[in-house]
Amino acid sequence: MLRGDVFITIIGMAIVTYACRAGGYAVLRVVRPPPFIDAMLRNIPGPLFAAYVALALSNMGPDAWLSAVLVVLTQWKTGSLGLSIVVGVAAVAALRPLIGT
């Protein structure tokens, strides 16, 4: 059973999250950011994702590093995100028993 205070906290966080996102969209519909800010907002997801992956890889073994290299090579050569994911999962599954963590 979900406690009342937990439920209210979850709903409150959902409302605040929605308000932040909706507020940002509302502001950007009225005020156009300068070209630098616009370019930065367009390009933030890639570096942010790379930072998360690098942090996770720093705590893993050589099997994960080699798998990551294979994922990057697959993405670079094919441009297929789906194939890159399959290659990464298969590489970890194959290398973990051989190399270990």
Describe this structure in words.
With 101 residues, this protein is an all-alpha fold. It contains 5 helices and no strands. It has helices at 4-30, 35-43, 45-58, 62-78, 81-99. Helix 4 (62-78) runs antiparallel to helix 5. The longest helix has 27 residues, at 4-30. The model has no long low-confidence stretch (mean pLDDT 89).
Q: Quick summary of this structure?
A:
The protein has 101 residues and is mainly alpha-helical.
The separation of the N and C termini measures: 39 Å
The whole-angstrom Rg is: 20 Å
Strand composition percent: under 5%
Shape: flat
DSSP helix count?
5
Question: If you average the pLDDT, what whole number results?
Answer: 89
Given as residue ranges, the uncertain stretches (5+ residues, pLDDT < 50) are: none
Largest sheet composition: none
Order of helices and strands: HHHHH
What labels describe this entry?
mainly alpha; 85% helix; 0% strand; flat
Give the topology.
Layout: H1 4-30, H2 35-43, H3 45-58, H4 62-78, H5 81-99
